[in-house]
Amino acid sequence: MSKELRIIGFLCNWCSYGGADTAGVGRFTQPTDLRIVRLPCSGRIDPLFVLKTLTGGADGVLVSGCHPRDCHYSEGNFYARRRLEMVKRFLPVIGIDPGRFEYTWVSASEGQRWQTVVRGFTEQIHALGPIQRFGKDAAATAAQLAASHA
Amino acid sequence: MKIGVFICHCGSNIAGTVDVAKVAEMAKSLPEVAFASDTMYACSEPGQEGIIGAIKEMGLDGAVVASCTPRMHGPTFMRTVARAGLNPYMFEMANIREHVSWIGKDKEANTAKALDLVRMAVAKLARNKPLFAKSFAINKRVLVLGGGVAGIQAALDCADGGLEVVLVEKTTTIGGKMAKLDKTFPTVDCSCCILGPKMVDVAQHPNITLYASAEVDEVNGYVGNFQVKVRKKPTYVDWKLCTGCGACLEKCPSKKSPDLFNELVGTTTAINIPFPQAIPKKASIDAGSCIKFKTGKCGICAKVCPVKAINYEMEPEIVTEEVGAVIAATGYDLMDWTVYEQYGGGRYKDVITSLQYERLLSASGPTGGHIKRPSDGKEPKTVVFIQCVGSRDKSVGRPYCSGFCCMYTAKQAILTKDHIPDSESYVFYMDIRAPGKMYDEFTRRAMEEYGAKYVRGRVSMVYPSGGRYVVRGVDTLAGTQVEVEADLVVLAVGAEGATGAAHLAEKLRISYDAYGFYMESHPKLKPVETNTAGVYVAGCVQGPKDIPTSVAQGSAAAAKVLALFSKDQLQSDPQVSSVDLKRCVGCMKCAMTCPFGAIKEQEVRGEIKAQVIETMCQGCGLCTATCPQGAIQLQHFTDNQILAEVNALLASELEETQG
Description:
The structure holds two protein chains of two kinds. By secondary structure, chain A is of the alpha/beta class. Chain A has five helices and four strands; from the N terminus they run βαβαβαβαα. Chain A has a four-stranded parallel β-sheet with strand order 2-1-3-4, sandwiched between helices. In chain A, α3 links the parallel β3 and β4. In chain A, α1 crosses α4. Chain A is globular. In chain A, 55% of the residues are buried. By secondary structure, chain B is an alpha/beta fold. Chain B is built from 19 helices and 34 strands. In chain B, strands 10-7-6-18-29 form a five-stranded parallel β-sheet. In chain B, strands 20-27-21-22-23 form a five-stranded parallel β-sheet. Chain B has a four-stranded parallel β-sheet with strand order 2-1-3-4, sandwiched between helices. In chain B, β22 (424-429), α14 (439-448) and β23 form a beta-alpha-beta unit. Classes of the chains: A alpha/beta, B alpha/beta. At the A-B interface, α1, β2, α2 and α3 of A face α3, α4, α5, α15 and α18 of B.
């Protein structure tokens, strides 16, 4: 794979962070682009985190939590699912390819699945290439937005 | 703020693929970092002393340890930091082992990633605040779910330890799978003779409340203070009155009801007591087979009952129990063997499961302990056992070894010879897994002393032929195909999570795997704990295991509960939400989303504001992501802290591209 891109993962502590740990313990080789931010629950994720991360220059954002119905806090991931689905649909509105953001569910026992998710998402981001940054100057941003809506 | 950064080599685990010295060197250049070093084993005693020494000498305000996952050693290092005189929450961890050194070998990329993770941890720690735990009272009662041998052991140990125990069993009797077994390996002692007395102990123990024929509807609360709704299913017999005399069983005209206890081998009456040693020894009506329920006529049992215990109008009853801990011991179920169409399971009457065979062997079973073929009641002379049916078979989604099948098959081969001395047994196996004490010796006895013929290889198909069955397989040691004519075929069916186990796990807020087994907190070091405080697992609910291991786990879970209850007060986790009253507009959206009911309204100078009940808050942060004002913040995971991590990472990349 070419030069690393900036991929940020927001992971819940109980399932997906554990799944990423399981993948590590099992020595499931993965691309190195992804950096993980640990949160207590996918329900803790404010949709704005995703947007701020992408507009701040990240090339991709991955969110992973417990499988629906299998939440340490019983219903956090249901809230997450609803909010994150909205984010996914909102991204094109602000000129960001929705492929730069994915949310998924990986349990603590699914080390192998985590490897597949990371490989797949990293490949997907590399196919999209580095993100175009907003805000270098207002005119450029306007042109960028206009182009994305055309 | 003066932050210290400690990079762990973890021997060669990290240092092998991360340039740890370079990470430490680069960490020193971060503005908040006052001290950085690398250390061979941060978690070792000298490693921890080194951290404490540096904190004291340099007057550090907080520490970042870059080593393994915080799920492993987070608490270890929090204690270290506390021993150095800091608040334990002035600590952050960067996971550079599981998430870096163990998933790739590119040293340069790994070093860059490790540095990024350190940078993120430092950025977060710079915004950490000291947090303080609150104390709360605990309810020293325990709920045990499942009355199999693991649940029985757990309940008895807790009760002997002086705790009040509520034991909930979904069927009408405790005993579980073990009660269905005839003999147990490798001692060949009678299963019910060793289990029966324990079951009686449960019934007689003053500290145990037993709800048989009951299930858990709802679990609320948290460690020390769970509220559990138990649904007592109607048995249509008032158990307070029923003496278990059995008069109703004798007169019941519906004698062809499916006998669940006997694994559907043989039939029973619609009103029945599952087996002679049943606890509680009370009758119950199977509404699905009862003539009274189906046609409205009959009612004989009500007429013959000497104590007038029959009540056809019985309704489910909900009982609420308050407990401080829960032990889940709901066991396993057999995998659905009928997916193996080539073996004819479910179609050929004389192809049965090992558990069904166990009932044929049992003196309290439908044949009184005489081995008879289900099809014609004849005594089989050739019995073929097929192992690994639903174990170690990826093609049916059961790639794991169920562990006990090799042993019970050997036992059944031995018992077959005991019951029918002129019989022959064949065992088709993949490998023999007999790692327990006296286990391998036992399987050898089956072969050498009892003459069971072990054939290494899989069976391709079973088909009927002239009243018998042809079992066609391969002998991989001889390298030939083999065909055996059998009178009876016994499938050693593997185990999977019990029906409904996943649903129960969701109620308990614990994780389960793809096969329905519950996940322990750590596969090696926390085998009976779960990731939900106050909830423990015992027995086959965690994965297939034999009786000794189930009993050991039952006792282990009980020991954990007794240790938990050895204090009168528990400390709550201080990583809870807190409300900024100036920002809060009292919309109470946070209270609506809180799964724990931990947010209440309060009135502050005539205005409605949210208030967090700190001992009830579990720290998920749902409220924080919900609050339109950003007024309620989950401490230790505030918006600012999370975004600081993100920004630390993004800033680093910008520098690179600009530079």
